[in-house]
Every structure is written in structure tokens, then in C-alpha cells.
Write a structure and sequence with these properties.
heterodimer; A: 117 residues; mainly beta; six-stranded mixed sheet; globular; B: 112 residues; four-stranded antiparallel sheet; 0% helix; 50% strand
């Protein structure tokens, strides 16, 4: 069965600290996709990154980086030199190919990140 | 490009009332879906569509209906609102295989 676990319910850091948000997933498929979304206090859901199961290269985008490890079924997200504007709830999500060609997203329960000045 | 739009942004209903949440996208995406977000539970899939004329149920479909007569629009109907349907509703669209889903701004629904 598909499942996404974000064990960290809430993390609090001081500005400029580095922080890593953990994501562990379960799937039986060999082809799947992983995503991270950000939900700031305003409530919208902002797409951050998409990764397919055949691409294990780590990715860096500015202060954000993602570490995908199939061996441990993890897709962790690191924010370097955190800023107050990074305060948000972050969701990890998994998508598999379905017989009807749908790619339904299975979300983790989210990690609330609070960055204090 | 407006992306994914949803109306209304806020709605209060009385138990038993019906209403339709509107969702539209201008990206020519085939795949559209509706999620609800409840505190501590992440997002759960209600219904989805892989193209015009094709819809199917997600994880929590009871009490909701959908239709997809055009590529652009995917309305969600609450047939007889119940307090358990108090939630934030998000519509999303994507181009298909493994594509990122782009979300609308959400509708906050309260059922009294």
C-alpha cells in the first residue's frame, strides 16, 4: 500500500539555522513520483519539487536541497540558513501510476516549521 | 495564465443545504482532482478526473458528486451538507503522468 510518513509534527528553529524535514514513503511500484509542497500561513499550496523514482540525483535550488535515497525510501528536504519567511507547513507526497492512468497524490500529514527571528 | 481558480473562497452552509464549489484551470491539463484538508490529517482525495467525461472516486467520496463536461471545469457538489464536511477544499490540476499538481487557493467551508 502507498503511504507517506512525516514523523516530525512540528520543528522550531532560530533564523539562520539549517533544518531538515524528513519524509519516508512506502510503495510497491518501481515507477513513482515524489513531491514537496509548502503551505504558508496564507493557506495556498505551493509546489516545490518533483522527483521520479529513476532519478536519485540530489537537487539544490538556492537555500533548498532534497536528498532522495531509494535504499531507505526517504526523500528529505533541507533548508539552509533558514529565514522567517520559511515558516510554513511542508507536505511530502507520493504518486504512482494507476491502471486508469491517474496519478493520485498521497500526502503525508505535514511538518509545521517555525523559524524564529 | 490564471492557473487554477476556485470560487467561493469562503462559504457557510446549514446542515442539509446543497451547494457547488467551482474549479477551473486554463493550463489545458487533463487531470483534475478535489482534496479536502482537515487539521492533522494532511490532504485526502475526494474525486478525480483523467479527462473530460471521466471521473472516479478517491479516498473520501461520500457526500460529494463531480462531473467533467469540459477540460477546463471540474465542479464539486455537496448534495446535503453535514457538519463533518466542514473543511478546506482544494482543487488541483496536472498534465498527467507524474506531473506536478497545481492547486487552487482553496475554499473554506463551514457547515453549521
Amino acid at each position: 500500500a502507498q503511504k507517506v510518513t512525516q514523523a516530525q509534527t512540528e520543528i522550531s528553529v532560530v533564523e539562520k539555522e539549517d533544518v531538515t524535514l524528513d519524509c519516508v514513503y512506502e510503495t510497491r511500484d518501481t515507477t513513482y513520483y515524489l513531491f514537496w509542497y509548502k503551505q504558508p500561513p496564507s493557506g495556498e499550496l505551493v509546489f516545490l519539487i518533483r522527483r521520479n523514482s529513476f532519478d536519485e540525483q540530489n537537487e539544490i535550488s538556492g537555500r533548498y536541497s532534497w536528498n532522495f535515497q531509494k535504499s531507505t525510501s526517504s526523500f528529505n528536504f533541507t533548508i539552509t540558513a533558514s529565514q522567517v519567511v520559511d515558516s510554513a507547513v511542508y507536505f511530502c507526497a507520493l504518486s504512482e501510476a494507476e491502471e486508469d492512468s491517474s496519478y493520485k497524490l498521497i500526502f503525508g500529514s505535514g511538518t509545521r516549521l517555525l523559524v524564529r527571528p | 495564465n490564471a492557473g487554477v481558480t476556485q470560487t467561493p473562497k469562503f462559504q457557510v452552509l446549514k446542515t442539509g443545504q446543497s451547494m457547488t464549489l467551482q474549479c477551473a484551470q486554463d493550463m489545458n491539463h487533463e487531470y483534475m482532482s478535489w482534496y479536502r484538508q482537515d487539521p492533522g490529517m494532511g490532504l485526502r482525495l475526494i474525486h478525480y478526473s483523467v479527462g473530460a467525461g471521466i471521473t472516479d472516486q478517491g479516498e473520501v467520496p461520500n457526500g460529494y458528486n463531480v462531473s467533467r463536461s469540459t477540460t477546463e471545469d471540474f465542479p464539486l457538489r455537496l448534495l446535503s451538507a453535514a457538519p463533518s464536511q466542514t473543511s478546506v477544499y482544494f482543487c488541483a490540476s496536472s498534465y498527467g503522468e507524474g506531473g506536478a499538481q497545481y492547486f487552487g487557493p482553496g475554499t473554506r467551508l463551514t457547515v453549521l
